[in-house]
Amino acid sequence: MGPFENLSMAARERFRRHKFRLSAAKEAQEEIAQLFERTPVQRSETSQRCWGQHFDWSPTQYGIYGTSAGIEALSIAGRNPGSSLLREATAVIARVEDPTSRFQRQRDHLNVYKLAACVEATDSHLPVLAGTPGSYARLVSASLPSGGWPDYRYEPDEEPDATMLATAASLYALRRYESFYPMDECASGLKFLADRQRGYDLTESLQAPTLVGYALLALHSYQGTPVVQRLQTYADAVVRAERGLTRWARRRPRRELFDQFRYDFVERPNSSSNRDSDFIALMPDCIVALAFMQAPGRLNAPRRRHVIRVIDGITRKISSRDFKPRNVDKRATLDHLWAQRVLGRFLDVSVMAAFSRRHRAQNASSFSFWGRFAAFSGLSAGAIWMSVAPFESGVGNAVLIALAAILGGLAVELFAGRYFK
Questions:
Q1: Which of 6, 12, 124, 241 is 20 to 30 Å from 44 at the Cα level?
Q2: Residue-wise pLDDT tens digits, 108-146
Q3: pTM of the model as a whole
């Protein structure tokens, strides 16, 4: 079998894997939706169905994270927003605005991450929303005058510090509200994130890739809007975050995929409650993959490889009903939401087109790659030839120099296209 037949077989094999990956992603998306549909809990007061922190764990525990995760996961899978299950779950989330509800007694309405979850669950099937009272207004008003969001809502006489995770989560949740774009809170929040995309060591723990990944996800969500066009540090911040996360993803061991990062924070003390701390658990691998896909045009080879590893890992674990971190023995609803977000974005038309374009390039590329590799070798041979046996003719030298320049350009394009574009 000659080299051309080998290249053709390799191209067909890549095409087959690409089709299989798309099919597996659709199946996993549907399996996640069915898992949420099979495992709701019922509020004892009203028998409304909703979700808790974990699947198949408690028949009574429910909360904002789990319920908002169920609403959004089903919306991503294309479920009818008017179904009885989604109507009941939406009614449960709306109780965060009821002063007599358990949510307010537990001070959930002061938790910025839970407010962001409520905002995400609001008409999650719609890509664009108008600003409305309720959780949207609460989340916007939680922004600090100096820029950014703290982990909890504050009183006028308090001066909490803004955090990168709370700011990223808030901005990402508010991305669908076009009325939010002209607000000072939007511009100052984006500036807060952009000004902090330097100095992070992404190798020490999962905290840095989680924070930087969520920040990049939020920054990418506002690309092309007038607010970022006025933000001078935006482009540099995006490049810094992308490069750091690309290096992190390239070194990420496959066995550590889907390890969970737990972010603990202190809420505002309240003598009427014995709760003074809370946490949110996140999956940095899913967050980083989603951030990369948020800008399909910037998906270079290492970023595509990370996305593909995450997609393949999700589909394999969802199929075996074992999608959970290594150090956790229960399947969490919020983890499955992040997986559903990744799958939904991967199956988006713009992202599929980006992967398909690259796939076609790689199909022809089996020629293209080796051709450019031969060009690089030719450049080296030409340089050696010029150094030991130069042409006496000026025309011959000019032709050889021009040829070397062309071959050098191909070599640079090969290297840059594989590692930097």
A1: 124
A2: 888 999 999 999 999 988 888 876 778 899 999 999 999
A3: 0.82
